Amino acid sequence: MSTEDIEEWLDTWVEDHLAHGAHDLDAAVALCLKEAEAIGLSAEALIRAARGDLAAFLAEEGEAIRQAGV
Length: 70
Description:
Number of helices: 4
Distance between the termini: 27 Å
Low-confidence stretches: none
Number of strands: 0
Largest sheet: none
Shape: globular
Radius of gyration: 11 Å
Mean pLDDT: 90
Helix content: over 70%
Structural class: mainly alpha
Order of helices and strands: HHHH
Oligomer: single chain
Strand content: under 5%
């Protein structure tokens, strides 16, 4: 997968999993990594797509989506 594909997958994952309310961040990170691995994405590639910090990325993006009302 290209970097662009990984970023798109991650954005979609956030929309699908975090847009509808607060979630346990540790559980969200673990689930995201597990689902990425299931489709062949490495943790390293996913973390790169998340600008180096998957937990912070998920928290920020999930909050932005909730605030936007998506």
